[in-house]
Amino acid sequence: MKTHFYTLPILLWLTTFPILGQGLFSSNFDKKETSSIRASILPDNKSIYLLWEPPSEDGEIIIARSNSIIDTPEKLYVADSLGRFPVQGKNTASNYYDYNLKPGTYYYAIVTVDAVKKRTVVMLPDQNYTTKPISIEEASTKITSPLVSLNSNASNKTKTIGNLLIKAEGSHIRVSWTPPWNAIAKQTIYSLYRSNSPMNTMENMRKADKLVELSHPINTYLDLDLAKSQTLYYGVSVKEDDQAENLPLEKNVSYRRIFFILDKKGNAEVVKDNQISQPASEDTSKPQTSNKEESSSFTVRGFGYDRKAKGATLKWNPPNGADDTTQYTIYASTRSFDEGVNSFVGGTVLKVAVISHPKTSISIKEIKQVESLYFAVTAKKADIAEDFNLSDGNSFFKYEFDKDLVPEEKKEEITTSTTTNPEITKTNPSDIPKLSSNLDKPKDDTVTEGNPENTSNQIEEPSIIYNSDSSILDEILRTTYQKKEYSLAIYKLTQYAKVENDTILKGKAMFFMGICYFHLGEFKKSLKLFNRIETVQYNAERSQFWKNRSLDRIARGGK
Q1: Per DSSP, what are the bridge partners of residue 233?
Q2: If you ran DSSP here, which 8-state letter would residue 462 be given?
Q3: What does the alpha-carbon distance between residue 559 and residue 544 come to, in Å, rounded to a whole number?
Q4: CA distances from 246 to 158, 209, 217, 238, 243 (A)
Q5: How far is CA 269 from CA 256, 554, 555, in A?
Q6: Cis-peptide into 217, omega within 30 deg
Q7: Sign of the C-alpha dihedral, residues 357, 361, 364, 365?
């Protein structure tokens, strides 16, 4: 069992990162030019994928290629031109696929047409030209690109997108996707759909609105036509000029559900749907299918941390099928890891360590406080490549510097109920009672869900059915939640959920954490908890009820 630490300590990286970020651009760098150019070999080992940050002003860019480095304007003018591409709003090109290259070494440069015409081109390393050679070898079978993953079962004729990304941009929604590895410029066509229903059947597809058709390599669109908070489905189909459109779409692959939240100030937020259960209008007769799909991904589960003085111990549960060849890679970044492989480009990610199974934890002595910090862990083994599509709360998390700092007088009580008995008695999930739908008579101003006098200001309190096999969790709920000490309850339930491996008990803890956040007025945090897989597995009906409550409060201006 070996642990490899990289030479750049995380403390040093966090301290110097802002300086490094400023130093990426020379004082002469013009933001009107392209920047952050990256090149990577595609899985077919004879094509190259280019990514870059487009210029700030509209116009056109030229992509140049050469067998030697293009580090001067003179070399640029004699290099091979791969064409001119638009820089104009939603049609701005920011990536390019250079297909079917002959064996050899390749370098690239991307400059604006305006600069070429005026002979004002300035070449800047790793900004508008590549400095590292990209080599295409004869009959090579090694996959070297972390940017694109290849589905070995995919046919050259049947193409589908990967890594569908949906996020808020101002008061709108930006939808982006990873193109198929064998997409062809101006021949592969993407159709973007939006609906209030799933897109898993042809009948449901007829209800969807087709927002736009885009030709490859354009793989992003800004949806401006949204005026209220709502549940939305976005999907992208792929077709070729001479082939039929590939419909219906596949859940969590070519279409996704999100919760669009628009507050009174016009600021938008997208909450992703992480639950594995099928929506109500989909076929729920075979729930095992979703579980199979979920477990097929070789990713860790339950990634979290325990505070240790100025540092922390990061812990996770191994993926199903982990063996002696399994390796875990821990990353840190000042940005979230919610954009799949795109989260790992741009120079903001530090590889902290590589750890061999069965070890599933790592201690960091000191973590210097910064504005935002995220940790992620990936897994790979002999026959499975590293998967960069990570999920919040399972394989990456945001490090909260002040979250676990509780008052001194609370520490003794917390330690007693969460650590004195590390062995948690398990039971069959089917034996654990759910929240009762027939609630006891409410106390004071508590109103049940079925009471016609119930209003948005009168929230139903769930009755807790205790079970001797979940005694530690029950004790936490008795001593904190029932006494309305919601902040302390959140802390204790968080610590409990980190060590609990039983999905139902963990889901129960998360469910009551969500209610605590709701009572504290932190409705976005409660929404995310009611949307968790474990919470839905614990009690799907009650999770949906509180999810709707949270959405309603957010839509009315709650935080």
Answers
A1: 195, 257
A2: P
A3: 19
A4: 8, 16, 18, 6, 9
A5: 16, 10, 11
A6: yes
A7: negative
- What are the structural domains of the chain? 31-136 (2.60.40.10), 162-272 (2.60.40.10), 298-398 (2.60.40.10), 408-555 (1.25.40.10)
Region of poorest pLDDT, from 16-25, 95-104, 155-164, 432-441: 432-441
Around Cβ 520, how many Cβ atoms within 10 Å?
A: 14
Q: How far apart are CA 511 and CA 529, in angstroms?
A: 7
Q: What is the pLDDT of residues 483-493, one digit of tens each?
A: 999 999 999 99
Within its chain, how far is the Cα of 125 from the centroid? 30
Per-residue pLDDT of 248-300, as tens digits, reads 888 888 899 888 887 777 777 888 765 433 333 333 333 333 333 334 578 88
User: Which of 487, 251, 529, 252 lies closest to 393 in space, CA to CA?
Assistant: 529
Q: Flag whether pLDDT at 556 surpasses 60.
A: yes
For the ranges 283-287, 446-450, 497-501, the maximum mean pLDDT occurs at 497-501
Query: What was the pLDDT predicted at 345?
Result: 63
Give the residue carrying structure tokens 């002959």: 102
Residue 303 CB burial class (10 angstroms; 0-12, 13-18, ≥19)? buried
Q: Please report which helix (H) or strand (E) contains residue 51, including its range.
A: strand 48-53
* Angle between helix 523-530 and 503-519 (nearest 10): 160
pLDDT surpasses 50 at 105: yes
Note whether 128 and 110 are within 8 A (CB).
yes
Q: Which residue has the higher pLDDT, 395 or 181?
A: 395
Report the DSSP pairing between strands 35-41 and 162-169: unpaired
DSSP states along 424-483:
PPP--GGGS----SSPPPPPTT---TT-TT--TTSPPPPPP---GGGHHHHHHIIIIITT
- Residue 259 · residue 250 · CB < 8 Å: no
SS3 16: helix
Following CA atoms 296, 50, 392, 319 in sequence, which dihedral angle do they give, to the nearest 10 degrees? 30
